[in-house]
Amino acid sequence: EYPPDQNFPGGDTQALLSTTQEMELRRRDYQVERPLLNQKQLEELGRWSSVTGTHQWRTWLQCSHARARALLLQYLPVLAWLPRYPVRDWLLGDLLSGLSVAIMQLPQGLAYALLAGLPPVFGLYSSFYPVFIYFLFGTSRHISVGTFAVMSVMVGSVTESLAPDEDFLQDLNSTVNETARDAARVQLASALSVLVGLFQVGLGLVHFGFVVTYLSEPLVRGYTTAASVQVFISQLKYVFGLQLSSRSGPLSIIYTLLEVCWKLPQSVVGTMVTALVAGVVLVVMKLLNDKLQRHLPLPIPRELLTLIGATGISYGVGLKHRFGVDVVGDIPAGLIPPVAPNSQLFAKLVGNAFAIAVVGFAIAISLGKIFALRHGYRVDSNQELVALGLSNLVGGVFQCFPVSCSMSRSLVQESTGGNTQVAGAVSSLFILIIIVKLGELFQDLPKAVLAAAIIVNLKGMLMQFTDICSLWKANRMDLLIWLVTFVATILLNLDLGLAAAVAFSLLLVVFRTQLPHYSILGQVPDTDIYRDVAEYSEAREVPGVKVFRSSATVYFANAELYSDTLKQKCGVDVDRLISRKKKLLKKKELKLKRLLKEEKLQRQAGPLEPGTSVSINANTSIRDIESNNMEGSKAKVRLEELEDTAASGQEDAKAPDGSTLKALGLPQPDFHSLVLDLGALSFVDTVCLKSLKNIFRDFREIEVEVYMAACHTPVVTQLEAGHFFDASITKQHLFASVHDAVVFALQHPRSGPVSPVSVS
């Protein structure tokens, strides 16, 4: 409030400033008081009780009308959103979006079939069946499911390795029997698609969608960049019109590139010119699209126009016969009947199928989550696995190859007004019309034009090379993952490269937790906040108390390093000090035994003279003395004296100063208490439990009491389950915060009963 004599806003400015400053000071002048709490008192105050685990399987086994309806809507999402579809608001946008996507699907389907090593028509099939299935089961409203370059090149590596050209050479003229080769490859691709679908559906039903979290963003981007390089190199044979050997396995892409360079003199000039002209046209039309996108209701269908123009020129000029340009060839009209996959091929395809299933799902879910976040809805990762799996499973029965979603088509679907998967259904219907009626019109389409379209579309993925500069500045560990993934994928091929990249990224995580940052904490002045004294110049260590913290959890891989670093940071050679202490105690024990032996020899030689004194250590054992057989009245008197001396020695040994470092002449640590900040602990294993117990034992040997602080409740529960707490280590050694432990340690420099203390 303002002073009574001030009329704001026309009052005195100085008075207003002084009032504001006073309010600010009041706001800053706060004080928090609470009792000092250890873990036991905290549990009593908060009335802690263990959380009873819910048995999810009981919910799954419940049978009711509501449960059945919920399951139906969960696994068939179209029944949930289609009845509420706003026709007036969204239908026009979905129709235009579906048409735009279909215009892109046609050339991409034909081109990506070449990447998969299959006849182009099977790219059209893969653009129809899976898209319609995803319309029924998918939860993303904007991704465009269908053929994708990375998936196609992964399929191509499988088909070319298991059905190489060399297996279909004709004996007479050593030419390849393309009909038999294509039939074998189609059988392989369809069986692969079914197996990929089974993997994805199975993983989705067991709620294994989180598996994609092991594919970090740098890993995925490095992998897709390497895949784009492989796609680029695989299309060079169509650009130059070369006949290359089929290769697969490690270093296959390197050998293919070397063979392309070796056979460059055999290039077909007409094919090169066709590819160059098509590429220039596609780039120019893309630049026009970017420049005129604000003024155009729909983007220019550059790929479709290029394909139509190239087909017309090829048919009119006769590129195949006059210039030797390779064309698509026969495209059968109509759909083909479903065919059961050859299950005997599953054993050969299982490894590649799992890799393709994971990569396809990773690409789809990452794009789906981007669009969901942008438009404010939720994507169910497990249902996405089921939807993609069913798309590939049904597609494989109809001789499609595995599919995922395309980034370029998804962006077009969103930017042209697509709101739901109705756009996908519309695009699949357009593809159906092309398959039934218009597909045969593209028989004279040059393959070099499709290769040019693929290479131009790789621009987005090839631009990911700029990640190297950005990751160098942001996070070099992520850059290392990117580079290892890229190199491994290039050298080892797509399947082994992915496995090596995942293994390396997981090992890097283990390595980073194995070598965390350790620090000694000091108190920031006038606060209860503790920070690393090496980083904060004003942070000061509390006299007599060492506070130690690790930035990672303690487990079997770093438990030994944790203990060693703790002893090193404390500035005390704990192991050497304990060793010296044990040696001195053992030396005193041996000296005592020697004195007792001398006393025994003297007694055997003759009775003790009156007044003879025997020097004995305070730690003499009564049992050792009673074992000696002494005779004579004077010896009995001396025995009683020795018993009294030994008894007093035992009392001294039980006393705090009986065998202290000071009494033994050893250096004492400059701190009496050690606080372990365990706030970073997320779990404990048996090695961690043993390490903590050893820390308590070792530091107590050098007369330093150990406390723990800031443990999370699940960690405390695991400590109890591991029988960590006993008579010597109780919950009274565990405090709610570091400050509580420090205050208690200062008030109790030696172990004693815990009592609540007011902390300001």
Automatic annotation (TrEMBL):
The lineage of its organism: Eukaryota, Metazoa, Chordata, Craniata, Vertebrata. It comes from Equus asinus asinus. It is a multi-pass membrane protein. Residues 578-605 form a coiled coil. It comes from the Eukaryota. Keywords: Coiled coil, Membrane, Transmembrane, Transmembrane helix. Its main location: membrane. GO terms for molecular function: secondary active sulfate transmembrane transporter activity. The chain crosses the membrane at residues 112-137, 191-215, 268-288, 353-373, 385-404, 416-436, 448-473, 479-511. It is found in: Membrane. Residues 535-745 form the STAS domain. NCBIfam families: sulP. InterPro entries: S04_transporter_CS, SLC26A/SulP_dom, SLC26A/SulP_fam, STAS_dom, STAS_dom_sf. One of its GO terms (cellular component) is membrane. This is Solute carrier family 26 member 6.
